[in-house]
Design brief:
Elements: H1 2-18, E1 22-28, E2 36-44, E3 50-57, E4 66-72, E5 83-86, E6 92-100, E7 106-113, E8 121-128, E9 139-142, E10 147-149, E11 154-155, E12 161-167, E13 181-188, E14 193-196, E15 206-213, E16 219-225, E17 236-242, E18 253-258, E19 265-268, E20 274-279, E21 288-293, E22 302-307, E23 314-320, E24 326-332, E25 337-343, H2 346-349
Antiparallel strand pairs: 1-25, 2-3, 3-4, 4-5, 6-7, 7-8, 8-9, 10-12, 11-12, 12-13, 13-14, 15-16, 16-17, 17-18, 19-20, 20-21, 21-22, 23-24, 24-25
Amino acid sequence: MKNELFLGLLCAALTYGQSYNIETYRVFGVEHPGRYKHPASITELANGDLYLSYYGGSGEYGNDTAVYGSRLKKGAGRWSDPQIIADTPDEGEGNPVVWQAPDGRVWLFYNNRTGDTWSNARVKGKISDDGAETWSDSFMLAYEEGSMVRGQPIVLKDGDYLLPLYHETGDDREATAASTCSYFMRYNPKSKVWTETNRIKSSMGNLQAQVVQLTDTYLVAYIRRGGNFLPTDHGYTLRSESRDGGYTWSDAVETSFRNPNSAVDFIKLQNGHLLLVYNDNMNERTPLTVAISMDNDKSYPYRRNIAGGDNTFAYPYAIQTRDEKIHIIYTTNERTTIMHAVFDEFAVIGRPAE
């Protein structure tokens, strides 16, 4: 009896200890098609598989770029070889977002670039009704030149979907104009109609909003700041909010979170806590930091770097799977490598979640 009790306590202690670990895996590097891999997105499918999408090719502005998809089957230890799932001949693709909706339909959104810069992009989409095994023909979601996608949708409390988009301006590969702005597309799954919100404005411009819903009417978005990549002491993540259920949005204001003109992600965990992942630096995309709020966005006292050092760690994309594990994928090694970090919330807050 004593031995059984000891073994039970030992197993509990090991499980508790493991919950503080961050497991980091290399998903793909230059050995797979498209040396350039940046950025990537991930979703958990209804059968428990993970599905990942990225765009790859010779470089960010290569007209040979295509959208690739890969699957990690539930319980497997290896991702499937990437396969092309979207490709417009002689035109560039970018920023794929893969997401399974509550009804089981898998959506793929991505940018299609027809000119020299992302100011010449539009947003396309595809759907899959067989768990991302096969995909529909592409359709155009946002026709306005400069339309872009990057972040995952959320399901609102009224059942609508809210997809972050942005409008990039400036015709410059090294900067965005101050008129660059974020907004959302709202989808009613009953009427199957998409509608736009207002545009979120800010002094430097902003792009790539990530959103959570806190109450029926109150939503918050954290947003990448715009501008260029020159050294600065004034680079901060921006924040906007909606008080009417996501229909209209405030102008974006600076937060205390540093931002080197890089993407962030922002999700609500199953226990209601909020997770923000960002580059805690004014000028470099390192380190990659996770911050957690337990008081509905009032404070973020719990923080931990999940990647750091003399490299760049960019375009984090975060989900929480049904087993409560947090998954963050990001790119590194000069945008040639996709990494996958897996951890419990304990790994950031340092104690069992309440």
